[in-house]
Amino acid sequence: MQPSPDFPTPSSRLSALGWDDARAAQFAEHAAAGLVPARVSRVDRGRCDTITEAGPVRASSKAVASDDPEHMVCTGDWAALRPGPEPELVALLPRRSAITRATADRTSRQQVLAVNIDTVVIVVSLAMPIRSGRIERLLALAWSSGARPVVALTKVDLADDPTMELAIVEAVAAGADIVTTSAATGEGIDLLAECITGTAVLLGPSGAGKSTLANALLGHDHMGTNEVRRADGKGRHTTVHRELVPLPGGGALIDTPGLRGIGIQDATDGVEQVFSDIEERASSCSFRDCTHRSEPGCAVLAAIAAGELDARRLDRYRKLLRESEWAASRGGSRKSRKRSKQRKAIARDIRALYRFRDQQR
């Protein structure tokens, strides 16, 4: 059987996906137990696809299941796999990074989109109106994860005024690499590939061209694609699951379903990084606790009055900070309630043990 073009040769498979000495050290105890390392490439209910040194393996994931969305097995996880007629994931290795967002039900829990990520590629279509707020939210997710963000502007061949649209993106994506691309003409694909290091995840709305861009980076059609609606430029969910695929030159790429809602949670550091221009000016305010509303000597308001800063950007900054801090406080309350519940359960068990001992006397 010829090897699939999606997988490197067996001798280099895991190292090409990011396996290194540090992970090998973490895995030493599992190796002694006869387990083998595997990287999760796709997750289904109760089962997942993995990549091992011997090749792709479909395994049960019931042993590592969790009721908490934050700790469920996820695409990109490194795991200990028990080989055999019925392969099974036994344990997950510690995650180095994670892309998370607030769950759709707006509870204090977080949904993990991808883990062990080195590069976050934020996909923005130039064939649709640029939404600065969406880009800022995705950048906040990327920066807070610890990964390096790259903004890929797709469909430049369909853009009305790419120069103007590029300027809009540059104004909100300071500190991130920005690459203009077209999968149709091949423009910018090689440059984007050079910007990607390690494992990269594609994030963006449906219709932005994530799957088409993924195919261009992979060098063959692996991801399914659909046309967007001409009326509003919106696309259907071509990708319905997260999938990790090895890149030809090493590393891996994770395509994700289109994101409608992008709730952020406990991402204050990421928000401050995205709005570093506001943070820098705020350090010059006369008052340390300046709210940038009406205080005298406010450097942020002075920048807005001078036309150096957009007032709408300040509004979006405030909104994201409030959202992140509110969600973080709810998360802290949930964890506190969980700890309290555990303490009460332990106390009940101890009291029951004492009663049992008294009855035996």
Automatic annotation (TrEMBL):
Keyword annotations of the record: Cytoplasm, GTP-binding, Hydrolase, Metal-binding, Nucleotide-binding, Ribosome biogenesis, RNA-binding, rRNA-binding, Zinc
Cofactor remark: Binds 1 zinc ion per subunit.
Residue ranges of domain CP-type G in the record: 105-262
Needed co-factor(s): Zn(2+)
SUPFAM superfamilies the record matches: P-loop containing nucleoside triphosphate hydrolases
Gene Ontology, cellular component aspect: cytoplasm
Residues that, per the record, bind GTP: T154, K155, V156, D157, G204, P205, S206, G207, A208, G209, K210, S211, T212
Enzyme class, UniProt record, top EC level: hydrolase
Binding, Zn(2+): C285, C290, H292, C298
HAMAP family in the record: GTPase_RsgA
PANTHER family (UniProt xref): SMALL RIBOSOMAL SUBUNIT BIOGENESIS GTPASE RSGA
UniProt name for this protein: Small ribosomal subunit biogenesis GTPase RsgA
